[in-house]
Amino acid sequence: MPRDIYDPAVPDSPAHSASSHQHQQQQQQVQQQQQVQQQQPQQQQQQQQQQQQQQQQQQQQQQQQQQQQQQQQQQQQQQQQQQQQRMEQQWQQQQQQEEMQQQQQQQPQAVQQQQPQQEVQQQQQQQQQPEQQQPQQQPHRHCRTTSPHY
């Protein structure tokens, strides 16, 4: 065993004790290295788990995108429902008119009192119809402006 590595002034017995300490430290280092090697596979497993978590996060993002698409579809459905409700309102008004006409035929004396109400309903329908027919009745204005004459 090497004697005078640490301090040449130290007597023999502390030098031997120091060298014995060195051997114990080396053994501890070897054990620590083995522990480090054992810890590395765990780190690799943790990295794999992190990668799996990242994939799960990506899947969550995809799910969020799908939810956004579903929300857009729901908005479209709501718009369609609103259009259907307008159509149903028109049908109800037409049915009311037909009922009023039937009442007129059954009660000829009350015809004069019920006519003004029918006129009011017809005016309401005429006001609603132009709103729907506006996109169809747009005049072709570009025909006049395409050929300017100087």
In brief:
The chain is mostly helical. It has three helices and no strands. It is rod-shaped and about 120 Å long.
3D architecture notes:
The relative contact order is 0.04. The chain has helices at 12-106, 111-133, 142-145. The chain has a domain at 54-78. The chain is mainly α. Helix 1 (12-106) crosses helix 2 (111-133).
Termini Cα gap: 116 Å
Overall, the morphology is rod-shaped
Helix content: over 70%
- Name the average pLDDT: 63
Radius of gyration, CA atoms, in whole angstroms: 47 Å
* Distinct helical segment count: 3
Question: What tags apply to this protein structure?
Answer:
about 80% helix, about 150 residues
Topology:
Elements: H1 12-106, H2 111-133, H3 142-145
Helix pairs in contact: 1-2
